[in-house]
Amino acid sequence: MTSSTKTLRVLVVDDHELTRCTLKLALSLQSCIGNVVVADNGKEAIAQVCRHEPDVVVMDLHMPIMDGWDASRAIKNQYPHIKIVAYSAADGGKTRAIANGAVIDAFCEKGACTKSLLEAIKSVA
């Protein structure tokens, strides 16, 4: 990606409305991000991926209906080029998330600052 030619499309997936809305707003203000859509569970995330084909998915791992582990596997199975950043308070970070079955490209702790999440998104894009 070159900053002058392409802006990223991002999907934020989290079951907490405040987290979804806050991340959507914060990411929408970034010049490198052109479009942010949201989903509140893994099943909805898969539908949004089919509809919008984002460049990066920011995925909570603990959600009802379908969690981030199952959703990440389903998305990567059908869209291997889409990058997934797990955004979670799950213990153990990326190594444990992968060991538990998540198919992710990066991991960002929910307690991290917005800048850390943005860096994770840029690093996988």
UniProtKB/TrEMBL annotation:
Residues 9-125 form the Response regulatory domain. It holds the Pfam family Response_reg. GO terms for biological process: phosphorelay signal transduction system. The modification 4-aspartylphosphate is found at D60. This is Response regulator transcription factor. SUPFAM superfamilies: CheY-like. Keywords: Phosphoprotein. It comes from Pseudanabaena cinerea FACHB-1277.
